[in-house]
Specification:
Elements lengths: L1 H20 L7 H28 L4 H12 L1
Helix pairs in contact: 1-2, 2-3
């Protein structure tokens, strides 16, 4: 499951990086930036509640962070 997500996310992030930093695609730079902002917001909306849940279950913050990253990915 995790590899399947990376097979989708990695090319999308590479394409967004190319769109942001390549001078040939000046018109697409804004779209790449918006993609990264939405991706970050999406990860926060999933990761923070999972982190809080794990902390409330009694995990240490380091374990809760690792578990929430595992859940998000």
């Amino acid at each position: 499951m995790r590899q399947g997500i990376f097979r989708v996310v990695l090319p999308a992030n590479v394409a967004a990086l190319v769109a942001v930093f390549n001078p040939w695609f000046e018109d697409w730079a804004g779209s790449g930036t918006v993609f990264f902002v939405f991706e970050g917001v999406f990860l926060l909306f999933i990761g923070v509640p999972v982190f809080i849940h794990h902390v409330r279950k009694g995990m240490s913050p380091r374990e809760a962070e690792a578990a929430s990253l595992d859940s998000v990915m």
